[in-house]
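Researcher: Before we compare anything, I want clean individual predictions. No alignment, no superposition, just each chain on its own. First chain goes here; please echo the sequence and then give the C-alpha cells.
Model: Echoing the first chain and its structure:
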Amino acid sequence: MFIYPAPLKRTAEALRTGQLDLSTFLDDLCDRIDRTEPFIQALVPERDRRARLQQEAQALQASSPDPSRRPPLYSVPVGVKDIVRVDGFPTHAGSRLPPHLFDGPEAAVVAALRRAGALILGKTVTTEFAYFQPGPTRNPHQPDHTPGGSSSGSAAAVAAGYCPLALGTQTIGSVIRPAAFCGIVGFKPTRDRISPTGLIPFSPSADQVGLFTQDVGGMTLVAAILCRGWESILASQYSTLPMLGVPEGPYLQQASPATLAIFEEQLAGLAAAGCVIRRVTALEEIDGIARHHHDMIAAEAAEIHAEWFQTYEPLYGPHMAAIIRAGREVSPQALAAARDGRESLRLELARVMNAAGIDLWVTPAAPGPAPRGLTTTGSPAMNLPWTYAGMPALSLPAGCTKNGLPLGLQLVAGFEADEQLLAWAESLALVFPHRADSVPSK
C-alpha cells in the first residue's frame, strides 16, 4: 500500500495559520513523491518540481505574510488532470499528438484555484483524451489493480498523499469511479457549476469538471470556491439525515452480485444510523439511456477530433480511434435526440424523487472494486445516467473488500442541489469512518 493521510480541510488550515512550515511541508511532500512515484506513476514527469514549488511558495509567502489575511487555499498543492490547461505546463491529454495542438489560455478553474492561493503540484496522468485507453498509473492501495479512469492520476495522487486536492473531469464516470477505486472522496457537481473553459473537450454536452479530496469537509471548502453561485449552508439546516432512494431495477442490477450484497450491508449501516431508505423503481430504460449517451459523446468527439484525426490518425490509440469512427456514423437526428434526452431524464428523476420524498439517491459507486491489471479502467455503468442528466454526484469511501480494495458509495442529489449533497454527505461520512481524519506532522 502507498497511501498517506492528506485531508484538505485540516491541511489548508494548518498551512494558512503557519501550523505547518510551508518549506518543510513541500520538502516532505516531494520526498514522498520521490519514494512512491516510481510505483504509482500518477504524475506527468517534471524536471525540478521541488525547486519550482519552493520558489512559488516563497513568492506566495512574500505576497501573503499575514496569516489572518491569507486566501482559503493558501499554499495547498493541487494536481491537475492533463486535459486541463495550466500556464507554464504543456498539455498532452494523455496522447501522442503534438502538445502545441492543445495550446490556449489557462483553464478558468485553475485560475480560480490560483486566486484562492493554491500551488500547482503538476499535471496528473489521464487516459488518452479522457477516454478508455489506460495510462501507466497504478492503484495506491494495491498497485496490481487499476486506479480507474480517466482521472486516474488525480485520484491516485490524492490517495497517495501527493496533494490534498486534485482536479478531474467526468464524461461518463471518470471522477466517481476512480475515487471509489482509490478510497477517496470524488465530487462531480451539477453540469457547468464549475466552468469547463480551458479543458480539451471530449463531449461538451457531457464533460463536467470534478474534484478529489480525502475528506468531505475539504470537498465542501473547495466546492464553495469553485462552484458557480455557491450558497453556504448552516449545519443546523441539515441536522436530520436525508431520505435515501435506492433505484431498483435493471440499472442497479448492473452491479455484481458480490457488490450488491455489500451494498445491502452499507444500507443496513445507514438505516442503523437513522436514515430512512425507500426502494423505488427507476431507470428502467437504462439501455436506451446508455445508447443515447454513447451516441452523443461519440458524435461530439468525432467533430472535435475531425482535423486532428485526419492528420494524426496513426498516433491515436485503439479505443479513441474506435469512438471517433463510431461518432461519424451518428446521424444528426440521433444526436439531437440524445441531447434532448438529457432533460427528459432529469425531469423524470425529479418527478420520482418528489413523489417518493427522496432527498438523495444512493447506489454502488461502481459495479465492483478496482479490477486487477492495468488493461482496463473498469466500468462506468453506475455513473452514466447521472452524468447524462447533469446531476451532482459524490463518491463516499464506504469500507473495503476482504482483500483490502476500497469500496465507494455513490450519492446523487437533484439538479443544482450540490450544496445539499455535500451537507448531507458530511453526516453520512460518519457512518463510514476512514483514514482522512488527521494531519501528519511530517
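Researcher: Okay. Second chain, same rules.
Model: Second chain and its structure:
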Amino acid sequence: MASLIHFSLDPFCRRVRLALGEYGSSADLIEEFPWDPSHDICALNPAGTLPIYVATSAAVICGVDAVNEYLEETTAGAKLLPGSAEARAEARRLVSWFDDKFYGEVSGPLLTEKITRRFLTSAQGGGGPEMHRIRLATARIKPHLDYISQLADKGGWLAGEALSLADLAAAAHLSAIDYLGDIPWADYPLVKSWYQRLKSRPSFRPLLSDAVRGLPPSPHYANLDF
C-alpha cells in the first residue's frame, strides 16, 4: 500500500489527505513533525519538507502540488481539476491563493505561534506565542472570509459548479485553524454553509479525529452541525 508522510495539522498535508479520500484511494499515514524532520525524511526529500507520498519504492513524490498532480493523473474516476481549461486555471489560481496568500497572512502565523513554537527549544525560537502576530493574523482572516463568501455565493463550489482542488485547499487551511477555534463562523454564514458541506463528506471524516499532544481541538471542531 502507498504511504503518506505528513503532519496532521499541516494544511498542505491535509489537502493531500482530502484528495486521497475524494479519489477513493487509501494510504498508510506516517506522522512526522515538520520542525524536526528525521533522517529518513531528508533521505526521501532533500528539502526535508512534507507531504511526501510514497506510491511505490520507485515512486516517491514530494510536495503538495506534485503529489496532487500525480494523484490526478494516475487515479481513475472523479477528477479534482474538472471542466474546461479556463475552469482548471481558475481552480489552480484559487489553490495558489490559499497556499500562498492565505497561508502567509493567516494560517501560517497562527499555526506557527500556537503550535510549532510550543515544540521548539529556545535556541530554535520556541517559547510563548508572539501575540502581535496572532492578533494580526486574526484580523487578516476577515477579508479572506469575505472573499470566500463571494466565491461560495456564485456557484455550488469555490471554482464553479464542481468540487475541485480549490475547495480542498481552502478547507485544508480553514480546518487547521478551526482546530484552534480561530474562525468567526457566525459572522460568515455562506462560508459556514460551504464548509459544512465539505465537512460532511466521507473524505473529511479522518481529519476530525486529529489531535495534537497537549493541545485539544476547539469544542465544535468535530461537530458537523456546529
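Researcher: What stands out in the second chain?
Model: The first strand starts at residue 3 and ends at 6. Additionally, The two ends are 35 Å apart (CA to CA).
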